[in-house]
Amino acid sequence: MPQYTKAIVRQPGKNFADGITTSNLGKPEYEKALEQHNAYCEILKRCGVEVIVLEADERYPDGCFVEDTAVVTKEVAITSRPGNPARLGEQERLASVLADYKLIESIVAPGTLEGGDIMRVENHFYIGLTKRTNIDGAKQLSSVLEKYGYTSSTVSVNDILHLKTGIAYLGNNNFIAVQELAHIAQNSNVIILNKGEEYSANCLNVNDNLLIPKGFPKSKQNIVDLGYNIIEVEMSEYRKMDGGLTCLSLLF
Ligand code: CIR
Q1: Is 149 a member of any domain?
Q2: What's residue 97's pLDDT?
Q3: DSSP 28
């Protein structure tokens, strides 16, 4: 797994609850979201990462989900072009921060792409084709990645927001996935999620610590059994807005 030294995060704004959601879990509470965001940043620091915190931008209620705005490798940051019009523009601030650290390439119209659809497995990138990421966006990303020596392939994702809403690569050839996406990992070891625990597909390996959302005991046990060092993270307010652990940071 890549070892990370930095993370960019953006705080939720007071209008966080006005973002896009399909979850039916009720309105998130701003103060609680902020608390959970601070705790998330502290956990990243504990994992050895310097955290660059951007202030909220109230033009974008979903702006804390920074993962969707770029794909970052050792050599390059490819800024995305969000597929939901309400999020278009979020990538600009992130591009200006990333430019201090990386070469910048960009996805351009008519391509759309959100970082939540991109799953890196060693030097290969799976690109989920969803309502947010189209074929044009996938092709653009693929050709930039190829320039830097990475391979990629597309996967169709139906009825799930982003590819990584339903699958995560844990490292060491282990995946966790909802049943519908388990085929992606057919030559690997896959933990297939129990009904009701689907949200825990979105896990995050940070420098060999495995961050998992709090409240999913079966997934937790299955991951512990694989020998990972687990850190449970309270995500209740972000879950209400369809966001998971990976969405809250851009790691590099
Ligand atoms: C959205 O619908 O765009 C946000 N409410 C949630 C984005 C979550 N991001 C992610 O899964 N990478």
Answers
A1: yes
A2: 98
A3: P
pLDDT along the chain (252 residues), means of 10: 96 98 97 98 98 97 98 98 98 98 98 98 98 98 98 97 98 97 96 95 97 97 96 98 98 98
Q: Indicate whether 47 belongs to any domain.
A: yes
SS3 state of residue 109:
coil
Whether residue 79 has its Cβ less than 6 Å from ligand 1: no
Index of the ligand 1 atom closest to the CA of residue 22: 2
pLDDT at position 50: 98
What integer pLDDT is reported at residue 218 of this predicted model? 95
Domains: count for the chain: 1
Residue 34: give its domain's CATH number.
Answer: 3.75.10.10
Ligand 1 and 243: CB distance under 6 A: yes
Catalytic site residues? 162, 247
Question: Domain of 184?
Answer: 6-251
1 assigned to some structural domain:
no
Cβ burial of 188 (10 Å; 0-12, 13-18, 19+) is: middle
Cα separation, 218 vs 119, in Å, equals 23
pTM for the model = 0.97
